[in-house]
Amino acid sequence: RTTMKSLRFISAEAFVSNAEFARRSLGAVAHDLFPLLFKASYLLEQGEVIHDLVENWPLFDFNMGKLLGATLDYQEDLSHRTCSVCLESCLTGLRDYVLNQSSPHTKKLKVVDLTGIKDVEVQFCKCKKTMGRWARTQLLSKLCSELLVYLQQAHCNPGTSEISINVLIDLFVTERNYELVVQALLKKCSCPLKICCVAFRSDNLTLQKFFYIIKLTDPSLLRKLEIVHNVHLEMEHLEILFNSIHFPLLMSLTLPARTFNVRRFTAADEQMLSNVGEKMGEMTQLTELSMSFSILTGRIQKLLSPLKTPLKMLDVSNCSLNHADMAYLANSFHANHLEALDLSGHDIPELYPSTFFKLLSHCSSVLRSLTLEDCNIQDTHVNMLILGLSPCQKLQEFKFIGNPLSSQALKHLFTFLCELPMLKNVEFPVPRDCYPVGITYPIDDASLCRFDRQKYERVAEELNLILLQANREDVKASTPLFGSYDAAVQETNNELGAYLIKSFKETLEKFTTSFNKMS
User: Fold this and answer.
1) Coiled-coil segments, which residues (predicted)?
2) Domain locations in the chain as residue ranges
3) Which one-letter DSSP state was computed for residue 299?
4) CA–CA separation, 279 vs 18, rounded Å?
5) Model confidence over 389-439: pLDDT tens digits?
6) Please, which residues have CB within 8 angstroms of residue 475's CB and are 6 or more apart in sequence?
């Protein structure tokens, strides 16, 4: 698919394709052409030109999402290209903008917004080397620290210290880049480039370090907070977090696995849960909540009823919800607003079929993403599922891997899915008849890959043919056996893997020591 380019854009491409000529000629370029030249340079991966454009940026703001998004001159959105060459040139250009010896009075730049960059699985850039969120965090922090050292040592233009640029970024901090980010945040006041954290993700970090760095980010600006892998945050820590820090603009909250476990609740814990719910109720902007792999049986109402704003996204996968929880969700004011819902890991047909379909009917007019993985949906439930999904005309994504469905049932379901006009992404299970007879669900990791590959390929081909014959080539259908693509996990999997091995080794050593003492 080719995207039409205006004559202006074609001219811009021709101009930047000769890097040496373009760099020499920038001084004669009209200021309002800089955004056009930036997008053309980004498309052609002209790193040196990108660097010089940013170093001499003549406008008040530099917004990556807008600059790379669809424009009249070139409709294609390039914001999902996290090309390492382009992004590194961009950030080093920003550092050199500050150091450039031209008169500070000609420097108008006040805001740089890097939050519009989208990390996706498939990259189209020629260099094939990406710079993910973690690496962007690392590089910006490094450049801020270098800038301060340089300004302290060198005899810069006196006006350089007056430059103040807010750099809006989604920070991603792990143990490996923690010290560097902390240093950059601590020295924010004296650095011309001021890191403004809009979204914060934390993986593989001790609680002490997490609490320290979250205070440095200026939580009053934070819109999204993700505390994900290997941060051992439990309900008592969450209560301390909410009592000591206010998040007035927080719109999205992701909590790590096992934050809540009602099976070992005392009376004091029940009160603590109420306090956490009330604190979340004070976050008037909160519309997205993810609490997967916590045990919340019978407590969803206590946690969610204090919220003043209806949720648009709710992930309660593998949270051991009971009928009372599902009944609350179906009848709550959240139901009519849910655009994304994840109920994976619950035996929906067995536990609360009618209540689930009531919830689905309430959110059907707005629902865009539905995830029902490992929900024991069988062939006998497919007709009911089709009936429930029929009103969901805005559904863009449907994920249901891990369900015991036959290839025949999948074909029946796919024939219906073709009728959903907005659908773009489907994640379907390996058909039950591709596995050995007697396989039990949910399938354990050891047995997950033990299926007839050739038969699966044949079925997948038939399912894609159903889409093709219905003119639905726009729908991507796949079977990610080990879960959907996660850009953050992909980027830091070596660190996470090393951490898990270390934890396993320590556990093994403790066990061996205890065993030896017993002997």
Assistant:
1) none
2) 7-131, 222-502
3) -
4) 57
5) 999 999 999 999 999 999 999 999 999 999 999 999 999 999 999 999 999
6) 417, 418, 423, 424, 425, 426, 467
